Amino acid sequence: MVARVDQVLREELHLADGLAAPNVYVLDPCCGTGSHLIEVLNRIAETLREKGGDALTAQEVKRAAMERVFGFEIPPAPFIVTHLQIGLLLQSLERSAQADRQFLDPGDEVRAHPADRAVGCGVRITAQELAEEDP
Predict the structure, then answer these.
(1) 97: pLDDT confidence band, cut at 50, 70 and 90?
(2) Which of 87, 94, 97, 111 has the smallest CB count inside 10 Å?
(3) Rounded distance, CA 106 to CA 100, Å?
(4) Cα Rg for the chain, rounded, in angstroms?
C-alpha cells in the first residue's frame, strides 16, 4: 500500500519525491504497532538514498518522523511499540550513516571516522528527545 501511494504521488500528482516530498503529510489514525508508519519512513529513506543524500538521510527521516508522519492509537501498549519501532529505525539509519563515513588517511589506510566510536545504544521514543538531538 505504501509503494502504491508513493507511485500515485509521483505519477498522478507529479511529486517527483513521492512520500519524501516535504509537502506530503501522512496520518495513520489507527497506527497499532506502527507497521504502516515504519514502511512510510523506510520509503522516505529509500527515496533520499536514491537521490544521493546518504549523509543527510538519517536527519531528513528524523525530521519527517517529527514533523509530517503522524499516528494515533487509543490503547497505550501498541502506541509504545510504535514509538519503540520508530526509535529503532532512526537509530539504525544513524548507524548506517556513520558506517558510510569512512575516509582514507595519508597512508591510504582505511579507518573508521572518529564519530563512529560514539554510537549510543539508547532508543529515543519521544519527539522532544529527538528534537533535542538536532544540532
Answers:
(1) low
(2) 111
(3) 19
(4) 17
Q: What is the dihedral of CA 132, 39, 24, 125, to 10 degrees?
A: -20
**Contact (CB, 8 A) for 40 and 86:** no
SS3 111: strand
Domain boundaries, the chain: 2-11+26-102+110-133
Write the DSSP assignment of 35-97 as a string of letters.
HHHHHHHHHHHHHHHHTT-HHHHHHHHHHHHHHTEEE--SSHHHHHHHHHHHHHHHHHHHHHH
Please give the helix or strand (H or E) that residue 26 lies within, else none.
strand 26-28
